[in-house]
C-alpha cells in the first residue's frame, strides 16, 4: 500500500479549481520531486496534503487514513517545511524545538538526543537562546528543517527547500534526507532546482496548469517525451514549449 | 502636473478611511469611558484648584513650556510609501506641490493639541496674570503662527539633513517657541515678533539647502511607516488589526511563570500561549495598563458604586481583548498542523487568563483595603472575567485556508 495516495483530487482557494483531477502516490522510502512552473499548482497541492486546504473532489490518504477519518493519526504522520519559514517571533530556537517535541509527543530524552545531533549538523548550537528576529533567511529555514526532522515522521513534505540555504546547508539537508530515506521514510519535495531534483529524486511528478503532465523515473520521463539522454532541464523546457504550441 | 495633486487626494482619502475605520472601535471601547471619567475628574480638580491658587504661581512659564514643547513636535505627515522611491522618482522636480499639500494637512491636523492646551490654560491665565482677555486671545494667534513655522522647519530640516540629528532642531525650536509664548504672555510683543522672524529666517536658510538636494525618500518612508505602525498598535488594543506583529521582549524575570506548564503533549498550546502573552509587548502591556488603571481607581475613588462599575468595565475589557488577541489570527502558524486537540488553544488561553485575572484581582484587593466592602471589586474582577470568557464570541478562525 502506498504511504500517500491522492485520487482525483480537485481543489483550490475559491470555487475555481487550481489543481484538477490529480492522481499520484508515494511509496514508503521514496523521494519524489514535484516539479512545475510558477503557478502550476505545486504549493496548492502541498496545502491540500497537509490539510490547510480541503479538496473539493477526490480523496487524500496518508498511511491509510484521510484527515476526516483520524485527524490525529493523519497529522502525526507527516512534517512540513514551508516555502517561506513560519516561526514564532516570541520563541527562541530551543523553544521551537521543545514546542514541536511536545506537539508530536516526543519525550525529553529523545528531544535532547535528536536536537543535539540536528543542531550540530546545521551549525546552530550557539544560537539556542536566540529569537528569530536575529536570524537570517537561511537560519530561519534551518529552524524549520530542524523542527521537521526532529519529529521523525513517515512522510516529509518540503516546499522549495533550497531557496535561501547556503551550500553547506543544502548539503546537510540532502544528507538528512538520504538518512531518513534509508530508515524508510518518504519525502515529497517541490523545487525549481532541477539538477538537484534529477540527481536525488527516485521519481519525478511534472505538474502543469494544475494537472499531472507526466510522472515516473527519469527514464520513464525520457521515454514519454521521446528524448533519450535528455536532462530534466531539457524535459522541463520541452514540456512548456509543447503546451505553448497547443 | 495635476496628477500629483490627485495622488495626494487619493492617498489622503484612503488614509482617512483607514483612520476612521479603526477610530470607530477606539471610541466605542473602554477608552471612551475612561476618558470621560478622567476628563471629568481633572476638570473638577482644576476648577477647585483655581479657587485657591496663589498669585505667585508661574503660570506664564508653565503654559509657555508645555505649549512650546508640543509645538516643537511637528513631525511631517507625508503619506509617502515604499514604492514611491521607484515610481515617483521621475517626478522629483514637481514633488514640492505634493509636499505643500502634505504640510498643509500636517499643520491643521496638529494644530488642535497646542490650541486646546492653551485654551484650557486660559482660566488659569485669567486668574493669575494681569493680562486682559483680548491679550490672552492674541496668544492664540501666536500659537497658530508658531505651529505653521514649526511644521515648515521640521520638514525642511529633515529633508536637508536626511533625517539625522532631528533632536538638535527640535530643542532649538522648542526653546524659541517657549520664549515666544512667554514674551506674549508678558505682553512683550516686540520680542515675540523678533523671535518669530528669527524662526522664519532659520526656515529660509533650510529651504535654500533643500532646493539643492534630492528627496530623502528613505527617511520619509520610514517616518511614515513608524507613524502608521504606532497608530495600528494603538488601534490593536481595541480591535484586531490584521498582520500586525508587535515587538517582542524576553522579560526573563517572568520565566518562573512557565513552570506552571510542564513538558507534555497536552500542554503544547499552553507552552506557546504563555510565552506569546508574556513576551509580546502589545498583549502584556495591555494587561499591565488596565490592571494599573483599576488599581488606581480602587485606591483613590471613595464612592464604592463608581469603583465597582469601573472595575467591572475594565475587567471585562481585559478579558475580552486578551481573548481576542490570543485566539484570533488569520495568519498561518505551524501549530495549526500539530496533532493536538482542536480546543487545546482555547483551553490554554482560558488557563492563562484565569491566572492573570487572579493576579489582577489580588492587586485590586490590595488597593481597596480600607475602603468599605473592600473585597467586592476583587470578586467583580473574577466573576466578570469568567462570564466574559464564557459568553463572548469565539474568534478563532476555523477556516483552514491561508
From TrEMBL, chain A:
SUPFAM superfamilies: P-loop containing nucleoside triphosphate hydrolases (SSF52540)
Start and end residues of each ABC transporter domain: 4-234
Source species of the chain: Lysinibacillus antri
Organism ancestry: Bacteria, Bacillati, Bacillota, Bacilli, Bacillales
Keyword Cell inner membrane set for record: no
Keyword Transmembrane helix: no
SMART domains according to UniProt: AAA (SM00382)
Name under which the protein is recorded: ABC transporter ATP-binding protein
Molecular-function annotations in GO: ATP binding; ATP hydrolysis activity
PROSITE patterns to which the protein is assigned, alphabetical: ABC_TRANSPORTER_2
CDD domains associated with the record: ABC_DR_subfamily_A
Keywords: ATP-binding, Nucleotide-binding, Transport
Pfam families, sorted: ABC_tran
Domain of life (superkingdom): Bacteria
Gene3D superfamilies: P-loop containing nucleotide triphosphate hydrolases
Automatic annotation (TrEMBL), chain B:
GO CC terms in record: membrane
Keywords, ordered alphabetically: Membrane, Transmembrane, Transmembrane helix
Statement: the UniProt record of this protein carries the keyword Transmembrane helix: yes
Keyword set includes Glycosyltransferase: no
TM regions (residue ranges): 21-41, 61-81, 102-124, 136-155, 189-206, 355-384
Protein name: ABC transporter permease
Species assigned in the record: Lysinibacillus antri
Amino acid at each position: 500500500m502506498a504511504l500517500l495516495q491522492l485520487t482525483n483530487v480537485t481543489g483550490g482557494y475559491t470555487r475555481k479549481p487550481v489543481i484538477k483531477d490529480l492522481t499520484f502516490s508515494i511509496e514508503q522510502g521514496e523521494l519524489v520531486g514535484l516539479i512545475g512552473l510558477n503557478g502550476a499548482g505545486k504549493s496548492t497541492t502541498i496545502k491540500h496534503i497537509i490539510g490547510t486546504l480541503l479538496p473539493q473532489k477526490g480523496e487524500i490518504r496518508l498511511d491509510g487514513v484521510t484527515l476526516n477519518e483520524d485527524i490525529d493519526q493523519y497529522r502525526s504522520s507527516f512534517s512540513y517545511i514551508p516555502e517561506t519559514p513560519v516561526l514564532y517571533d516570541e520563541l527562541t530556537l530551543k523553544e521551537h524545538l521543545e514546542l514541536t517535541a511536545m506537539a508530536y509527543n516526543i519525550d525529553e530524552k529523545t528531544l535532547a538526543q535528536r536536537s543535539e545531533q540536528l543542531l550540530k549538523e546545521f551549525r546552530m548550537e550557539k544560537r539556542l537562546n536566540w529569537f528569530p528576529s536575529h536570524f537570517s533567511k537561511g537560519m530561519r529555514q534551518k529552524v524549520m528543517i530542524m523542527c521537521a526532522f526532529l519529529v521523525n515522521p513517515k512522510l516529509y513534505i518540503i516546499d522549495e527547500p533550497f531557496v535561501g540555504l547556503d551550500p553547506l546547508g543544502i548539503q546537510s539537508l540532502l544528507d538528512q534526507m538520504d538518512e531518513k530515506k534509508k530508515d524508510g521514510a518518504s519525502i515529497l519535495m517541490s523545487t525549481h532546482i532541477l539538477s538537484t531534483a534529477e540527481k536525488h529524486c527516485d521519481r519525478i511528478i511534472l505538474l502543469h496548469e494544475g494537472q499531472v503532465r507526466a510522472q515516473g523515473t527519469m527514464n520513464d520521463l525520457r521515454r514519454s517525451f521521446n528524448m533519450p539522454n535528455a536532462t530534466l532541464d531539457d524535459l522541463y523546457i520541452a514540456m512548456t514549449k509543447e503546451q505553448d504550441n497547443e | 502636473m495635476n496628477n500629483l495633486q490627485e495622488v495626494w487626494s487619493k492617498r489622503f482619502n484612503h488614509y482617512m478611511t483607514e483612520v476612521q475605520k479603526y477610530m470607530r472601535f477606539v471610541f466605542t471601547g473602554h477608552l471612551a469611558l475612561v476618558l470621560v471619567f478622567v476628563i471629568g475628574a481633572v476638570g473638577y480638580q482644576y476648577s477647585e484648584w483655581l479657587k485657591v491658587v496663589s498669585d505667585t504661581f508661574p503660570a506664564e512659564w508653565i503654559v509657555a513650556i508645555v505649549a512650546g514643547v508640543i509645538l516643537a513636535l511637528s513631525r511631517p505627515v507625508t503619506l509617502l510609501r515604499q514604492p514611491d522611491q521607484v515610481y515617483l522618482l521621475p517626478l522629483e522636480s514637481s514633488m514640492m506641490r505634493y509636499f505643500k499639500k502634505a504640510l498643509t494637512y500636517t499643520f491643521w491636523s496638529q494644530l488642535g493639541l497646542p490650541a486646546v492646551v492653551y485654551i484650557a490654560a486660559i482660566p488659569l491665565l485669567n486668574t493669575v496674570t494681569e493680562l486682559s482677555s483680548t491679550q490672552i486671545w492674541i496668544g492664540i494667534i501666536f500659537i497658530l503662527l508658531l505651529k505653521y513655522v514649526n511644521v515648515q522647519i521640521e520638514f525642511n530640516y529633515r529633508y536637508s539633513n536626511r533625517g539625522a540629528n532631528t533632536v538638535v532642531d527640535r530643542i532649538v525650536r522648542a526653546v524659541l517657541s517657549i520664549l515666544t509664548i512667554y514674551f506674549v504672555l508678558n505682553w512683550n510683543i516686540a520680542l515675540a515678533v523678533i523671535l518669530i522672524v528669527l524662526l522664519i529666517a532659520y526656515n529660509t536658510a533650510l529651504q535654500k539647502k533643500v532646493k539643492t538636494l534630492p528627496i530623502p525618500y528613505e527617511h520619509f518612508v520610514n517616518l511614515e511607516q513608524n507613524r502608521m505602525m504606532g497608530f495600528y498598535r494603538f488601534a490593536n488594543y481595541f480591535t484586531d488589526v490584521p498582520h500586525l506583529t508587535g515587538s517582542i521582549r524576553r522579560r526573563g524575570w517572568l520565566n518562573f511563570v512557565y513552570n506552571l506548564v510542564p513538558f507534555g503533549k497536552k500542554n503544547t498550546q499552553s507552552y506557546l500561549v504563555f510565552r506569546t502573552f508574556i513576551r509580546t509587548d502589545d498583549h502584556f502591556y495591555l494587561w499591565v495598563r488596565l490592571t494599573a488603571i483599576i488599581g488606581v481607581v480602587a485606591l483613590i475613588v471613595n464612592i464604592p458604586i463608581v469603583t465597582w462599575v469601573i472595575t467591572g468595565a475594565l475587567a471585562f475589557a481585559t478579558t475580552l481583548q486578551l481573548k481576542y488577541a490570543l485566539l484570533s489570527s488569520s495568519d498561518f502558524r505551524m501549530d495549526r498542523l500539530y496533532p493536538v486537540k482542536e480546543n487545546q488553544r482555547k483551553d490554554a488561553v482560558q488557563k492563562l487568563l484565569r491566572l492573570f485575572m487572579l493576579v489582577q484581582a489580588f492587586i485590586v484587593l490590595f488597593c481597596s483595603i480600607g475602603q468599605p466592602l473592600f473585597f467586592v471589586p476583587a470578586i467583580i474582577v473574577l466573576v466578570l472575567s469568567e462570564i466574559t470568557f464564557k459568553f463572548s464570541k469565539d474568534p478563532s478562525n476555523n477556516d483552514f485556508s491561508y
